Amino acid sequence: MEVGDQSVTPVELEVRPSRLKRMWQGVSIVFASKTATIGLIIVLFWLFVAIFAPFLTPYTPLEQDWKAPNQGPSSAHILGTDELGRDLWSRLIYGARLVLVVLPMSEGFWLPGGTALWGVIVALLVGTTLGLISGYYGGWIDMINLAPANSVI
């Protein structure tokens, strides 16, 4: 197609997939692996249990039943009881709640995210800082920073 002495070429537009399709492509990587899928199911199960802990058991984790110490699994106590008669399922799911959902800082102050998340964040910050310092300066500073890491390995 010509207009006067100039030729006009059609412009090709780049078609980007929708946001939902891009998200699904990212998630589909997990579903491509059976191991990753099973791991995701386990993590989602424990997150669900930790969030809804008060609704999944009739007992509190500290409630003692002196008539039922060291009992095995039953309809009243799914995983049984410990030596003080405390329900093990209640203690397990409330423990998961502490690790995965909330981090108690004091009596009335809780941080969202759980002990596991905050532990990873602190380790990431400390490790990155020490790694940057060691990489920049090198020499004896590098040796001092790597000595604790090497002792762990």
Could you walk me through the main structural features you see in this protein, from its secondary elements to its overall organization?
The chain is 57% helix and 7% strand. With 153 residues, the protein is mainly alpha-helical. The chain has 2 domains: 19-100, no CATH class; 103-153. A two-stranded antiparallel ribbon has the order 1-2. α4 packs parallel to α5 and α5 packs antiparallel against α6 (139-152). The longest helix has 24 residues, at 114-137. The protein is flat, with a radius of gyration of 27 Å. It starts with a strand and ends with a helix. 8% of the residues are buried. The model has no long low-confidence stretch (mean pLDDT 88).
Gist of the model:
The protein has 153 residues and is mainly α.
* Helical content class: 55-70%
End-to-end gap: 71 Å
**Widest sheet: strand ordering:** 1-2
Helical segment count: 6
Q: Could you tell me the radius of gyration in angstroms?
A: 27 Å
Largest sheet: 2 strands, antiparallel
* Averaged pLDDT: 88
Q: Approximately what portion of the residues adopt beta-strand conformation?
A: 5-15%
Structural class: mainly alpha
Number of strands: 4
Low-confidence stretches: none
